[in-house]
Amino acid sequence: MIKLKIITPLGLYKECEVASVHVATVDGETTILPNHMPIVAMLKTCECILEENKEKKHYALAGGVLQFHDNEMRILSDAIEGQHEIDIERARRAKERAERRLAKQDDKTNINRAEVALTKAVNRIKVYEHH
After folding, report:
1. What average pLDDT does range 98-108 have in this prediction?
2. What is the number of other CB atoms lying within 10 angstroms of the CB of residue 117?
3. Torsions phi, psi for 20 (to 5 deg)
4. Which long-range contacts (CB under 8 A, 24 or more apart) does 81-90 make?
5. 20 and 32 in contact (C-beta within 8 Å)?
6. Which residue in 98, 86, 79, 99 sits closest to 125, CA to CA?
7. pTM (global) more than 0.90
8. Residue 75 above 70 pLDDT?
């Protein structure tokens, strides 16, 4: 088993033991199992899937850093939401706002910020709708 801690700026989000952790790093998707070699990886905004008590649990992860060593893992992220915590209407509104900003693209549009907002909203919707 992997001892997992997920930490956000608000503090400890989750501490548990899991059989596996599936995330998307900047180098691609990966699943970490017990006894994996030590790793430090930058995480993309992605769906994080934890296998906890033989059940897969889905989370919307807003990027971050993963560190794994001796079957202990820490994930540091600006934000994470479990599938049941996602406000789907808010996520859909955020997606529409970001799409409008990208379509308009005037001098005041921060393209990078709009693209990040769109990626996060689409990820939250995907995790929410995953069954």
Report:
1. 79
2. 18
3. -160, 160
4. 81/124, 81/127, 82/57, 82/58, 83/57, 83/58, 83/59, 83/127, 83/128, 83/130, 86/60, 86/124, 86/127, 86/128, 88/124, 88/125, 88/128
5. yes
6. 86
7. no
8. yes
Task: Write the pLDDT tens digit of every residue in 34-64.
Answer: 999 999 999 999 999 999 999 999 999 999 9
Name the pairing type of β-strands 20-25 and 28-32.
antiparallel
User: Tokens for 67?
Assistant: 């560190």
Residues 81, 124 contacting (CB under 8 angstroms): yes
Q: What does the alpha-carbon distance between residue 128 and residue 59 come to, in Å, rounded to a whole number? A: 8
Name the token pair of 46: 């992605």
**Residue 28: half-sphere exposure toward Cβ, Cα within 13 Å:** 1
The pair of three-digit structure tokens given for residue 80, joined into one six-digit string: 């994470």
pLDDT for 29 equals: 94
CA distance readout (Å), 76 to 22, 32, 118, 129, 131: 15, 16, 21, 24, 26
